Amino acid sequence: xxxxxxxxxxxxxxxxxxxxxxxxxxxxxxxxxxxxxxxxxxxxxxxxxxxxxxxxxxxxxxxxxxxxxxxxxxxxxxxxxxxxxxxxxxxxxxxxxxxxxxxxxxxxxxxxxxxxxxxxxxxxxxxxxxxxxxxxxxxxxxxxxxxxxxxxxxxxxxxxxxxx
Length: 164
Ligand SMILES: [Zn+2]
Fold this sequence. Notes:
By secondary structure, the chain is α+β, with helices and mostly antiparallel strands. It is built from 6 helices and 8 strands.
């Protein structure tokens, strides 16, 4: 093809034969399956609704926090592994483990709950001893979710900041 187009999620220039999705009659192209999934979960975040710009276009973050309880607490070492694995994920702002309560703060523009659930499952598999099920169940059946985006609207530095 003759030209490239912009990934509406991360803003990267991508060739037109990359990951694609048709939404309301318009074809969007993405750099990766992750960006495609983010768009599919919440298209309005990236392209807005008629008469209103999308949060992504305004350059803001939508900060969410999800808190859940585990049947038994993670050890410090296990909590550190979880925090490191999730912290390396795009869009994760903060992870806290206090006793059997875990709270995860993330930017909905950059990470969907499904993507976090998948990553938590991978960490659980690594930890073994039934942690995959316990962690995923906890994350899905959370007891508190709040949107703190109104309090913390910050300029969006872009998903690739920090990379080379
Ligand atoms: Zn992308």
